[in-house]
Amino acid sequence: MNDKSLPDELSGLRASIDNIDAALIHMLAERFRCTKAVGVLKAEYGLAPADPIREKQQVERLRRLAQEASLDPDFAEKFLNFIVKEVIRHHENTAAERSAS
Q: 3-100 maps to which CATH number?
């Protein structure tokens, strides 16, 4: 079955999903641009790459937001943890590069 034989409603929903996916990618790119700047500042000031207190606050905040948005809070937490793990890896690399200079 090709897209031409799909009901218009399904095609419309898929187009919306494609737009949302594109927006998510751009939002993630912007988020990582900001967290990269945070990593540079942390390296400059000798701060730890991870901030467990901030991470805990963010998990609580996003779980609450997810619940308000009728999104599974466990999924939201897993998604955030995935992102935070990548951010910390970037911060560690930034700190290592800075100390090697």
A: 1.20.59.10
